[in-house]
Amino acid sequence: MLTRLPAWYNIQTLMSDEQKNNEWKERELGALWVKKSLTGTQYMTGHIELKDASGKVQLVVFKNKHKYNEDGTIANDKAPDFRLYKSESTEQRQNQDNAPASKEEVATPAAAPQSDENSLF
Fold this sequence. Notes:
alpha+beta; 4 strands
């Protein structure tokens, strides 16, 4: 027994939905996950994939604490809401703990900038 399909349901609709999904998949650069450090600072981790360059880059993302005044009002409209940093692997962090401090340090959740706000959004 055949089931009658709704009038709007046709092969063109299915093909255009699949085409849209493929277009978004091709445009995707990466993904982010919201996390919380031991000190309560919220941050995001994730990756971007640079298809024309070096491949996948691991990231950590923090809310820009310099955008807001102490009372929560915006101090600088042009300041970014978030800052992205290249993430360190666990092995890099362990090696850094055993080595003298360097001038350039990559942000890690343990060394996260402090924020008084509870939510990223």
